[in-house]
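Customer escalation, tier 2.

The customer says the design service returned an amino acid string that "doesn't look like it belongs to this structure." They asked us to rerun it and document both sides in this ticket. The original structure tokens are below, unchanged.
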């Protein structure tokens, strides 16, 4: 669930037509963030993200079944690494291992992203680590970004039918993002328009 909270007096909204929101707090639940991760990275066959090979390869390495938790000031992604290892297209062995990476939330412009990826739990097998480590350190933070302004604009599309007023978000500038309990809190400034 994403909630949008701003201190705006209803009368001002109706009369002004355009409102500058000096302080906007956007909270993103763990469940919403987990859905976004699955949509952006784990949308391949069988809900997997392939690191090596693909769904049609005899041998491959993939990660699947991501679950998020918030621990202190970090987002932790728990997942399973699945590897079918072999030589020259012949799979010799299949293994499944738990893997865990933690990320620090970050903000830039309208976008919430992640940085400082750490491998918190990974295999003790060198061949698996060789393939998993770059993904866990780099691909997750680089590939998983959420444009908060786009999410808010989509949420406001139904405002006319619900209230009779067309409410649009013209601008959103994110200043900070942090984990607070079981939510990601985003502090920003923005401009709303009511027609």
């Amino acid at each position: 669930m994403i909630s949008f909270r701003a201190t705006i007096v209803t009368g001002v909204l109706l009369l002004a037509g355009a409102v500058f929101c000096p302080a906007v707090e956007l909270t993103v639940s763990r469940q919403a963030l987990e859905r976004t991760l699955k949509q952006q990275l784990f949308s391949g066959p069988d809900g997997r993200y392939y690191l090596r090979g693909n769904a049609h390869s005899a041998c491959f390495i993939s990660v699947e079944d991501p679950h998020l938790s918030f621990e202190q000031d970090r987002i932790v992604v728990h997942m399973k690494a699945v590897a079918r290892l072999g030589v020259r297209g012949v799979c010799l062995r299949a293994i499944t291992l738990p893997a865990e990476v933690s990320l620090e939330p970050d903000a830039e412009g309208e976008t919430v992203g992640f940085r400082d990826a750490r491998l918190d739990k990974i295999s003790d097998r060198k061949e698996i680590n060789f393939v998993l480590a770059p993904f866990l350190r780099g691909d997750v933070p680089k590939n998983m970004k959420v444009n908060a302004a786009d999410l808010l604009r989509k949420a406001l599309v139904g405002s006319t039918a619900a209230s009779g007023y067309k409410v649009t978000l013209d601008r959103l500038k994110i200043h900070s993002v942090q984990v607070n309990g079981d939510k990601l809190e985003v502090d920003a400034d923005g401009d709303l328009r009511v027609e």
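Tier 2 assessment: The sequence is consistent with the input. The two ends are 26 Å apart (CA to CA). The CA atoms of residues 61 and 83 lie 4 Å apart. Sent an explanation to the customer and offered a walkthrough call.
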